[in-house]
Amino acid sequence: MSKTLEVERWFEQNRPPAESALRRVRDVILGADPRLTEQVKYWTVVFAYQGDVCSFVQWKKPGVNLMFNRGARIPGKFPHLEGGGPTARFMRFADVAEVEARAAELGKIAAAWCRLMDADAAGAGAGKPRKKPQKTTAGRPKKATRRVKRR
């Protein structure tokens, strides 16, 4: 677990209302895989491994709102990972007791991200399939064209 002085300063300067729950979430995430790191970015705490994994959002409010920036790509079924959009997912905790109750799931999500990034780096593409360029009948990628509005 690699806690940074930068994040400690963030906690000291901001004193968020759910500080104890935020700190417990931090412990769970950093304890899930030793490759996970933390930093202050975009005025909040961001956890990362080969790109941003998740961050505290709306931290001035009671409770913990954790946003997984590219959470839709994380493989597996996680009952408390919310969201149905194309990219982000959220995990919310009311208090420390709720963090404790969902700690195993949160740790599995963080570890799944690390495995996904390793697979992507190895070229296995374990995440959601990326769109391939459209092919023309000649077998070459279709060129992007701009529509020009005619008057």
Overview of this structure, please?
The protein has 151 residues and is an alpha+beta fold. The chain has one domain (5-122): Aspartate Aminotransferase, domain 1. Helices cover 33% and strands 17% of the residues. The chain has 4 helices and 5 strands; from the N terminus they run H-H-E-E-E-E-E-H-H. The chain has helices at residues 5-14, 19-32, 96-101, 103-122; strands at residues 37-41, 44-48, 52-57, 64-68, 89-93. The protein has a 5-stranded antiparallel sheet with strand order 1-2-3-4-5. It is globular, with a radius of gyration of 19 Å.
What's the architecture in CATH terms?
Alpha-Beta Complex
Count of distinct strands: 5
Question: What spatial form do the alpha-carbon principal axes imply?
Answer: globular
CATH class: Alpha Beta
Q: State Rg.
A: 19 Å
Q: According to CATH, what is the topology?
A: Aspartate Aminotransferase, domain 1
Oligomer: single chain
Percent range of helical residues? 25-40%
Separation of the first and last Cα atoms: 62 Å
Class derived from helix and strand content: alpha+beta
Largest sheet at a glance? Answer: 5 strands, antiparallel
SSE order, one letter for each helix or strand:
HHEEEEEHH
The whole-number mean of residue pLDDT values reads 87
- Largest sheet: spatial strand order: 1-2-3-4-5
